[in-house]
């Protein structure tokens, strides 16, 4: 049986999958529960509504984007100079694009 952190992660991943597939407006807590293989009540134990996992998804995606961007800047042979920022931004955006 998963511990609380593992269960929350499971539900978060399910919410992310459903929101990405169906869009935010069409996603229900029941959809998230079905995707995660848990009851709707279990979803509500961890999240008050679909806004919470959606906000967490946005925060996670933003963090991943920024980290990718910072990694690209730090690995620039020119020491992260302004000349390397355009390449870093291009790399960060392309690495987070769907299908990449």
TrEMBL record:
<dbReference type="GO" id="GO:0003700">
    <property type="term" value="F:DNA-binding transcription factor activity"/>
</dbReference>
<dbReference type="InterPro" id="IPR001647">
    <property type="entry name" value="HTH_TetR"/>
</dbReference>
<dbReference type="Pfam" id="PF00440">
    <property type="entry name" value="TetR_N"/>
</dbReference>
<keyword id="KW-0238">DNA-binding</keyword>
<dbReference type="GO" id="GO:0000976">
    <property type="term" value="F:transcription cis-regulatory region binding"/>
</dbReference>
<feature type="DNA-binding region" description="H-T-H motif">
    <location>
        <begin position="28"/>
        <end position="47"/>
    </location>
</feature>
<dbReference type="InterPro" id="IPR009057">
    <property type="entry name" value="Homeodomain-like_sf"/>
</dbReference>
<protein>
    <recommendedName>
        <fullName>HTH tetR-type domain-containing protein</fullName>
    </recommendedName>
</protein>
<dbReference type="InterPro" id="IPR050109">
    <property type="entry name" value="HTH-type_TetR-like_transc_reg"/>
</dbReference>
<feature type="domain" description="HTH tetR-type">
    <location>
        <begin position="5"/>
        <end position="65"/>
    </location>
</feature>
């Amino acid at each position: 049986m998963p511990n609380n952190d593992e269960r929350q992660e499971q539900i978060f991943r399910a919410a992310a999958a459903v929101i990405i597939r169906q869009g935010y407006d069409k996603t229900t807590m029941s959809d998230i529960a079905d995707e995660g293989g848990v009851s709707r009540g279990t979803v509500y134990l961890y999240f008050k509504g679909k806004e919470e996992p959606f906000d967490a998804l946005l925060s996670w995606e933003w963090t991943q984007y920024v980290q990718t961007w910072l990694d690209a800047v730090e690995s620039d042979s020119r020491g992260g100079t302004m000349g390397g920022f355009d390449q870093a931004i291009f790399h960060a955006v392309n690495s987070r694009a769907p299908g990449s």
